[in-house]
Design goal:
single chain; alpha+beta; Thiol Ester Dehydrase, Chain A; 5-stranded antiparallel sheet
Amino acid sequence: MEQDQLVTNTEIRVRFNECDPLQIVWHGNYLKYFEDGREDFCIKNGISYLDAKEQGYSTPIVKSVCEHKLPLKYGDIFIVETTYIPTIAVKLVFRYRVFCNGKLVCTGETVQVFLDEVGKLALIYPQFILDWKKEIGLE
């Protein structure tokens, strides 16, 4: 897997229920769009939530950042660009850029940690993540 494959683009259409009365996307929905991008990235790259669960882990978000540039409106079709950020710390870091009609709409970042089946914080990477990192050339 090459470096450029650590980025995915996910196309999404703004739905009516995601907008305020002015037909502008409510700010909290951008975190949902990040989730859509992250889930798409993880499925395409073989580290989905179900993969983590099968290995006995959950990956809760411990930090999220969102910076709005331009509003999305009802019916807009936009792209969530999701980038995996390698780190030696035992966490998953993703950065997001949201584009609509070639314009940057929003940027953000999320950080996830690994919890085992009893909710204990993992202090070393789970083996399935080490294997994945090796497969993509990060280890």
